[in-house]
Fold these 2 entries.
Entry 1:
Amino acid sequence: MSEFMSTQIQLASRPSGWPAHENFRTATVAYGDLRPGQVRVRNAFVSVDPYMRGRMNDVRSYVAPFALGETISGGAIGHVVESAADEVPVGAIVLHQHGWSDTVQDDASTFRVVPDVPGVPLSLRLHVLGMTGLTAYVGLTAIAGMREGDTVFISGAAGAVGTAAGQIAKLLGAERVIGSAGSPEKVALLTEKYGYDAAFNYKDGDVRAQLAEAAPDGIDVFFDNVGGDHLEAAIDAFNDGGRAALCGAIASYNTTEKTPGPDNMGNIITRGLTLQGFTLGSYLHLAPEFQEQMTAWFAAGKIAYDETVVDGIENTVDAFLDMMRGANTGKMLVRV
Amino acid sequence: MSEFMSTQIQLASRPSGWPAHENFRTATVAYGDLRPGQVRVRNAFVSVDPYMRGRMNDVRSYVAPFALGETISGGAIGHVVESAADEVPVGAIVLHQHGWSDTVQDDASTFRVVPDVPGVPLSLRLHVLGMTGLTAYVGLTAIAGMREGDTVFISGAAGAVGTAAGQIAKLLGAERVIGSAGSPEKVALLTEKYGYDAAFNYKDGDVRAQLAEAAPDGIDVFFDNVGGDHLEAAIDAFNDGGRAALCGAIASYNTTEKTPGPDNMGNIITRGLTLQGFTLGSYLHLAPEFQEQMTAWFAAGKIAYDETVVDGIENTVDAFLDMMRGANTGKMLVRV
């Protein structure tokens, strides 16, 4: 019998407002020998995502809250290092939702083997070729019903979902894509690398005024990662029949007080607007369609991406907090 | 040559906040002889509707603003008293959008002949069998996608649209229908006459608390005529995948300051909610389907209604203002 040690990050207490280190603890978990059907996986990359903040609260949602005292679950990718399951052999690359740990051991059915494609870095399965890309695709297509010729506004455009969404919008025929981000460097990247037609720094001034200037003919679709003043600005800028896919609201994730909603809700009626929120769990049936499209675009060299990588599982909480503060460009990842 | 005098109500100035008599003027319009293709119509009933308040403002909307100095347009029904158009003979009953006048004269194509059905009062074509009923039907079906077994909440439930919507919801298979209104008498009417399963007086206290009590298992569909605290309460009460048809927001039609939106917009994402606004103009293709259903329900004695009738075209502005204040039960009409 061999014991195997795993370092894992657990939720120690529920944050009120901004999370702090004291809300987490680093635990050493001892695994025994593999039981039949189990595999042991050494993670290569672990994902930190904005939606995880919501799961730290004990509120009703499509996605259940994290349990106190348990390891933070979420996307990760790694290699099988020991196997007692024929279908998932040693050396296989596997995606899973076991979350913030350097190593994990569980039934083979909780891991999904992904092919090792030359020229496709592993980490991309955690963002542009994975859930993040799917989130962008679902929001634009199934939720907002984007059509060729639409003008599309994307908030938090330099983040993992935003960089994917801008490119997908253009590839699906958007006439004009506008993005907001939080630094001049990010704004430059949006137009220079990601094909945005216009971009602005929301810290430079009133979002309504900046969006109105960037979209003189109004917007048809809004993909929202931010909420707050961004949603209000979009409701002002919408053309008749405009559609918003509400994906995230990072502006209010760490507030402790209730924040008032947009002051222009009347436009929803007079302009026949639709605001639809979504979480990915209800749209996983679109994953095959997305994979087919995205794989083709990627192979054709049409998909750019950025990664902000933090090394060491013990720095996962810092990576998460930095991501919440907008320190990342593109996808924030922990390399184990 | 004969001259014919018509009394008409025109928009004299745009109201800021609550409209007042000074914003309107009573004009006497002189019509000459009929030209070929024209008809002259003596109105029987003229409609006053909440959406008209929005048209008094000079703001962008699906429905164009009323022009200053022109007669307020809107639904009316009357009899042809003189005709120079073979297809619309004297005595025909016609529906039209010429609005607030005792008599009107125009091309026959601007009037729609409706059959004189025994047992169907003319006035019903202006509400439960007309645009008002269609509004309720479109909101529940095409906008909110109501399904059998849904729990439905309707704000402003004792008004013209609300009384129709509650009955249509039940006839389409809603499991439970909940309504809000502004007096104990209206609340009693909702459950005793209109088949609502529960109702509350929004003036009795916090709308959130009253809705939560009336809908212990949450709501699936919200048909909103009020906005403000009603919309906020619905967003709190929604089950996952809930859908709101935003039809009116009478709570804020007469405010001069911007009013903050719901403080719980985050629920839209976490519960996968959809808020969709609409105005009827985009959904007139559903009129035949509605007419077929509604006519059958009405003939079977399944549709109740109320009318609050004001006599005299010169009292139209009072009728409109009273309706905005909630003085009506069911449909507010002016009998000419």
Entry 2:
Amino acid sequence: MSDILKEVLAANEEYAANFGDKANLAMPPKRRFAILTCMDARLDPAKFAGLAEGDAHVIRNAGGRASDDAIRSLVISYKLLGTREWFVIHHTDCGMETFTNDTIRNLLANSLEPAEFDGENWRDIGKGPGSRAGEYIEFLTISNLEQSVIDDVERIRSHPLVPGYITIYGFIYDVKSGRLIEVPEASRIGRATI
Amino acid sequence: MSDILKEVLAANEEYAANFGDKANLAMPPKRRFAILTCMDARLDPAKFAGLAEGDAHVIRNAGGRASDDAIRSLVISYKLLGTREWFVIHHTDCGMETFTNDTIRNLLANSLEPAEFDGENWRDIGKGPGSRAGEYIEFLTISNLEQSVIDDVERIRSHPLVPGYITIYGFIYDVKSGRLIEVPEASRIGRATI
């Protein structure tokens, strides 16, 4: 058994031993909202947004992007589980700002071992074989952080399955301060219309 | 400003005020692993798996499914940010077990207001207009929980961009106890091969 697996199971043992009355929580989010944010290890949405178990849906992917899959999740979130406010939260120092589709496609074609970042460029240090399957993936990289929040709120706002009564807020989380900074233009686009 | 927005910002203010040395965390996950799990409000992966900020990637969507978008995120996770072990964690009492593509497509075609669950069936209580755009979404519902974990580990394991040295574990999180229960068949399929 790997060290990581042992550690995760030990931490889980402790969590379960102090589970308290969380067994009684209902499936629908009590506070009727959802957060879409990045998978980045430095982000703990429950902590930075003050969520207890049972409060809110949390959707995370690379970049916190409004991918088709995030939209699938958001549609289920409001239609079946009653959320009414959604936060799109990207963050400073995001890995998605450091590469393009071409960068990662070339790295993957070269090898499937991890690449290294020198602060400006990604370099492949691994050995092949790689795979060209990256050509079929749109990686949803970010070239401008505010714009990516605006674009994603806009994409969600204009989706035919997203009703006008939902409010969508756009934010950037600052990994240096822990602070949420609103992107006013995004929140303006995300305003409920009915 | 909505109550939810006020509460989130107040909680964030407090978090940022006690941010400590987290400003120094690096982008790559310190413990080199990733968790793919459900957006369900009752799940707090940082708590149930013992993660501090900076430790691990967390990817979440409706069901914790190995969607194309989850695979996009996992590829970025290992290739650029060096993770080597991945946990696929579905959970008991998952909303994704309560409906099918047809169910939600019909509900959405009827109205974009929330539906109600009577413990067996979803009923639409809202008013139209709805939208037929749900026809274009595969909702990745779950009919058997263990099987969905096995299927998802298998999909990730056999993806051409996922190298053999990555270990993938399959688990079910029990919302009644807080406990992680391994799905041995999934973890067997997910074993590293090199």
